[in-house]
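Section handout, structural biology tutorial.
Before the tutorial, make sure you can parse a SMILES string by hand: atoms, branches in parentheses, ring closures as digits. In the record below the ligand is zinc ion, and the chain has 142 residues. In the tutorial you will relate the predicted structure tokens back to the input. Do not try to memorize them.
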Amino acid sequence: MSEWIAFPFPKCPSCGKQWGKSYHKDCLFNGQLLVEPYQRQVKCESCSAQWYILDSKFHCSCGYQFYPSEVEDALSTTQLLRQRLLQKLNEMDSYEKSIISKSNSSFQQWIHDISYEIARALGTTISKAQEVIKNFFDKWSL
Ligand SMILES: [Zn+2]
Ligand SMILES: [Zn+2]
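Predicted structure of the complex:
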């Protein structure tokens, strides 16, 4: 399984700004960057350049240049997974969202489905994946 999501521009250690998207610097097409949370690969949507997440370099609009080592937490698999879950929720229409927030059994079913998907991708057990997801939702309120 390979799922690409918008690569969030991490919080700049200098000015504190952050964005939901990153763009490929010096790219002919100024392409948007996507990330694969499980394989930790980054790629440009336009020119198809691809590299490992820790080989990224960030150029903030304030002029500061920084490396993933300075913002490692923001780029951890857990944080990227969180982005993925939020994106998944955003993809659902409001009807589906209201079902999930109101009905606990639908929510449990949804967690079960997505943890199966994640467990398969991460090569881990379903219960382990469920744990990660439940921890995520405990800290996140609708
Ligand atoms: Zn900055
Ligand atoms: Zn590019």
